[in-house]
Records
---
Amino acid sequence: MVESENNVRTDLNPPLLNIGASSSAGVSPGLSGSESCGPEVVERRRDRKSFEGFSVLLMTGFLMLVLGVLLGATWNRGGTRSAPAEEYLTIGIGTGIVAFLLIGLLFNAAVRNSLPWLDEFFFGVSKYIVGNKLRHTQKCRPKRIILVRHGQSIGNVDKEVYKTIPDNKLSLTTRGYEQALEAGKKLKATVQDETTLFFTSPYVRTKQTLQGILVGGDFDESKISVREDSRLREQEFGNFQDPRDWERVADERRRVGRFWYRIPEGESGADVYDRVTIFLQTLYREMDAVRPKNQPLENIVIVSHGLAIRLFCMRYLHWTVEEFDQVLFISRT
């Protein structure tokens, strides 16, 4: 098992797939040992930590009740009158509450260490109570994460448009939309009728690509959901770009390094890496959400840009900067 700096078990991560408008040039196929939704996964994931907090409270309450009854009985034994059984119980409960507040957790820890069988008993009770409540829910990772680069845009065929059209407003060409339709067919063949959550960059060309995917795949609307996330946008190159400056910028980037070089008035690869990291935290929360068993999240599709996708892979698969530099641009098919 490998632990990330965010304590994420990467051996349980779903595999990465690259499909459709982008080929898988240079992208690792993913990780082995991933888990998908299913009863056996649910049982494995409901490990001791899922019930330990409730078990501690349950066991501590019981021990303090016993301690309270004993203290109450001792206190009454020293008196001049005998108390009925109901009074012992009342005194025991009251004393138990006070004792719980004062020494409950310490006493619990001591008993759990010295009497492990008692700890196991209450753990089993808490697992039955909590597990019975969650019997209609499950918490598991999706089967796969699919990465899709947008189709061909007008900026890919005519660099001069960057002078007058900002990067976020560049649309797909006719060929680019056809690529999106084809990607939808490939994606549908992969996920079939499984539930799918789509994330997309807010740029025009990625939203048009997603639209083409949904049309080409003829997805059942009840099986999909769509979210737009600005953290998936392309590396920022400045508001407008003059192709005459690109040769100088490309030369400087080669000398500094693709990951470290900051585009004038724009971002560095490291900047994109940071926001992709924040997005990944959101993604893990989404993947680990407890859902009804009849509504599992089986697939996640991310429609984004070439550099953002490579940096997502870098973060998700824990590539080094040197390994990132070996991954070339993702071409379109």
---
Amino acid sequence: QPLRPSISVRRAMSAWLDRSGSVWGYDKAMKIASYLLPLVAQTCPHRLQTLKEALKLFGSHFSMYRVTTRLGGSPFGLPSELDNIINSSWVGGWKDNVIRRCVILQSYTMLGYYPLEHAVWAGTIAPKLFPLDVATLSRLSCVFWVLWIVIDIYATHRRWQELKRMETKLKMNGSLTANNKAKIERSRRSLIRYTLRLVLYLPNAIHWTLDEKSKSTYFTSPSRLISCRFALADWMVNALGLAEAVLGTYTYVNGDSISRPKIEE
């Protein structure tokens, strides 16, 4: 006899399959695993060293899978960034021209990021065929990622401003209907969560631009002092990454959007 789960269970399963069946959804699951497993490993006692090492390796494998996904393109990678540069496809309908320029500039930073990430992937998988300094290339790629985040923070600030102007205009015109108000409020909540994700991203991105000597050396010089202030413990890197991954999964399932809300005027 087939199983007869409750309606709520069937709906939850249907929603999960619908979301995880996309590249975006599956990437979210892999991101959670890539941070959660190493974080759990760090809590394991020394007597469980075999389990500890296995969890770290699994986490590393899931992280490498995500790099492979970006190598293949789809919603990630160079093809999508080039499409945005040519067609402004990720502007999201915002009228502020500064937002458009920021979004396109972000894609230019990714033109620096992705080739370096692909090189790191190749050098890690086949070091004899690609004898590259993957540590240096990885740090350099994260410099582009930091730039991407900083630009996005500013672009999101401009989105906030435009949303506020939109709400003010609707109030003045007497067009702030319940439906329009709900759309603006939903957009506002989406931008709040998106901003929080950027804030969670940034410390790790800066941390990964540092070399290992900067991360481990104590404050012996002003330059080392600056570097060490941004260096994070491993558990903190994984905790921040996991927090962002969980929040990102929630926003994906919730259908959050940072595009300009479609208002009935």
---
Amino acid sequence: VSLALAGEAEGAPRSPTRGGEHDKRRPRKRETYAYDRVFGPEVGQEEVFGEVSEFVQSALDGYQVCLLSYGQTGSGKTHTMQGAGSGPMRGIIPRAMEQVAAYCAQQRTRGWAYEMEVTYVEIYNEQVRDLLGEDAGAPTTRDFGRAEAQSGLEVRRDPKTGRVFVDGATRRPIDPADAAAVDALVACAARHRCVASTEMNAVSSRSHAVFTLHLTGTNAERRARLRGALHLVDLAGSERLDRSHAQGQRLKEAQSINKSLSALAGVFASLNAKRSHVPYRDSRLTFLLQPALSGDGKTLLFVNLSPTAASANESLCSLRFAKQVNQVELGKATRAVETV
């Protein structure tokens, strides 16, 4: 697993007490963390994407590729993945599609033709919802019960091919070179995604959002067909209940979010320990991403940190999680190529 970190990577301030002053009775030693890449707050979206652009195009070579954005609520995960507008603030998703389009054009001269479809789902309270379907709805902060009441889609695994998919999710054909179409898909999903206000974040995503580009490449001359997938995942933010003061529906959401993030940590811990059993099915998120998280795929994790002093404890937890993930070795990825 490769890892890129958004924010500061060295040191951690002491834990603030309830009164807001540092607890001098329990001084915290200075801790240093090392990662593949650290992006400071002055770094723009273009430089961040430049670090992962070659990783993205692996999907067109027949690999299962996954990029996840992890961190506490309000730390900039959605900004990293989606960005804003059509200029320099564009995020990973639109830039990745632009990169895919450029690579497709290059591969076309070598005899490859590609068919592509997009699914975009969210996992809300362990229910999988379609963000591109006509009946996706747009739940408001006063109407989350309707989102929960909707019948969730099922994550399934084909026993013959091993392919994991969301049964019933809308699959939209897409031309990655059509920037307007890509922006429309992202905007549609954003309108339908569950968000709400908490004391930690005025616009807090209450679900994990998974954008997946499914592609099939065919080369008639070589009589070869490959199948790849690019998963771009905006994880819901972890949150401490003593800071968010979540109650009622917000509390239930926070508990579900934290539980699924713990399941993700459990998968990485099992992979790092090389255990014979990896608990992919402990959550729908890890089950859906199993092909990329297992030894057959390629996974990269962005960890976003909030710069505020009040978020020091959450930042330290994120740094430690990132350190754990960075120690995982998935092994050599496997291409999905067949003769036709």
---
Amino acid sequence: AFRVLRLFGRLSSLRQIINALTAAVIPVLNAFFIMFLVTSIYSILAVSFFGDLDPRLFGTFFRSLFTMFQVCTGDNWSEVARELFTLQQEKEAREAATFNGTLAVDFVTPVYSGRIYNTTAVFFVSFQVIVAWTLLQVVVAVMLENFGSASDREREKQRKDEADATGRIVPHYALDPLLASLAHFNTSGDLSQRIGALFSVLDMDDSMTLSYMELSEGLKKLKVKPMIYLSEEDFDTITCGRELCNDEGQIALESFEKIMKIQLKLYVQRKKGEAM
């Protein structure tokens, strides 16, 4: 068993995945906590609303929490709601057949008529929308986002370790996926127009400047493959040690166009060199 575990240390790809997952644990746990908190609130409400009606599923907080977890997974959640509809209809029929605290002798449990009780329906549908459709997706999104960032940091660390071990700089071109799409331009004016449109997309706060964080987050959202992860070292490289930034360390449109044209020229030169 220990020999198998040693493989995680020897295989860089496995080590990269494990380290990325480990780094993403805390953000994912935070998202899970919010989801658990909302589920607990619904569980408490369910005990209050349905505890007397169906004590088997909602009699205590922990029974209710387990049932709401089942509802969250989508495992027959509609059957749980319809069972409550049946019990509510039966309760109304019993109340109607009770006189002076005595149930009528000829009382027969009614067959469920298909009636939907609005309060119960809203309770379960809202839980599905808030927890199963929204918060659960947030958990997945946070996990993927942090896994991607952690994976990028791990690759960057491996690149630096390799550079330190060999004494040479390992080439890393973060913008290549974007430059590959920009390379297909017709005229210089067409290229400038494309770069201007790209700047507008990345400038999310409409400040006409791009900070490192704004550029990094904006590049991640572009529909290019592989996804672009821009490190601060990459930012320093493409801005020539931040000489192309303003006094606040941000990139204006004119500097952004200059940066992209320089990087595009270098990209084309690299591709020509690789083809020779």
